Amino acid sequence: MKKIIQTQAFLYCNLLVLFFLLNGICARSAWRLDLSRDQINSVSESTARVFQALDEPVLIEAFISKEVTGEISGETQLIFNTLYEMDRVAGEKLKLLIYNPDHEDLRNKAQERGIQGVQIAQQKEIESSVRLGYFGLYVQKGEQSTVIPLLDGNWFVKDLEYRLLREIKSFGRGGEYKSNIAFAMATGSPEIYAWTRQQDQNKDNFYGFKNTLSKELGAVDSIELNLPIPVRIQSLILMGLPELAEKEIYNLDQFLMRGGNLICMFSSFEFTMQLANARPNPYVLGGSGKTLGRASIKEKELAALNEWLGKYGITLRGEIIIEPSQPMPIWDFKGSFPKQILYPAWAVYTREAGNIVAKDPALKGIEQLVFPWFSSLDVKNAKQAKLKFHNLVQSSSRAVSLKSTSLDYSEIQRMSQSANDFIGRQVPLAVLASGSLKSAYSKANIPNDKDIDKSLHRSEQLVDSTSNLLVIGTSYLLSDVLLQNQIGIKIFSLNNSFLLNLLELVEGDTDLADARGRQSTISTLIVSSSFVSSFISWTFSLGLPLLIGIFGVMRLVNRNKKRGLS
Length: 566
What we know:
The protein has 13 helices and 27 strands. By secondary structure, the chain is of the alpha+beta class. The relative contact order is 0.11.
């Protein structure tokens, strides 16, 4: 026996057994390493939180066709990975069944569940064929059920984990659910109306944002500020550059005093965005298909807004910021072929570059944002002693502050290339103030109005209540203009995740924050020098093709020499 133990064959057998045992242990363990940029091969902590809170298991029936092209198979593999990971993490709280509808019975079952087939074209040598493919999930909890399509338009969904968890959480609400969120409507604030034509999706309409909020968090109201804000409303969204009457300002103040949350997305300048022709290219974000007017500061309206906002320690600077070092790459069609241009009036901000500095767990998954047409903020802590200010997003130190400029691509690019008067420091662009507020009104200066009951005035915040005041230096973060093309929709998704996580943070429910934050990011290259930028541009456009051409010629010459050819 001793001789057998000492043999190499016994050692190799033990190593082989150990290898399989370790694989089995790792396959069932909860720790894995995902090295992908956007963490697409794993699920977030949200999955564990949502399933642990369930009082009964959830059934998921996945109908996914497998006899498909290689391109589609690669997309569905990511979906399979997500489902397997969620099944592993959820344990007994999830029953996962995966079907390949390759025969009539399963196809009928998919259709009974509400999943319809889509046509898939397949090419084989000289002949082509069209067949039906099925891509959808049937989700059931108790007597409630829903269907989640895996195709969104012509693309497979990239945020399957979040969509699944959102539907599972919504089962507990039942029927029509009304959120505690409302849009504040005032003179100067943007409009929110349904689209009936392409022109309705403009920079000053936010129907898409409201529609998304209603799907995510429940129905959202739009309310006027000339009456006290209903007690049911916990979070209020105010956008644009509103011109508020004294009575409206007082109602907002008292809303904060009772522990309400106020989300402000303000703009300190205005400009026009007009269609240049009747049929603009849908892939253009304000370029050859549209004309952008000259941006100018609205001095009077901004001063009135800051007089009110400054009483809580935050003001909006009257400026237009451009980011020559972190511009947004946008596709534009000029000439005979499409090319990507850099638009410095839209900035790509990342956690890696030090722009996203929010440290709250609800925002840790937010890795990238895009700020379009924006200004910075001033923070004065001394105005509110019991308020804590948290800088969430800040500019780069190479940002440029302007008082007036044209926002057309060519002009603002020219200006950014010649700009050398940088701010020189990182300035705040999004600030969250949390704590106990002191009213901007004393009993002596309450506005005289029949709709105001002075006996209900609060000079300080209610005991044990906390208010949150979020101020962002742009009103275009989730503008409808983003929803006109693929890159714009990606920007909308990134910014939407940030704002939804903030809304849930101030309302105390952050179960979905991690999953929502896992968005597909925009690939960018941050270049701090014009020389480096020119070097990279010339290298890839001329240098590499030239080197490859020289290499090809030399290889051809050597081959001909070996063959005895001149």
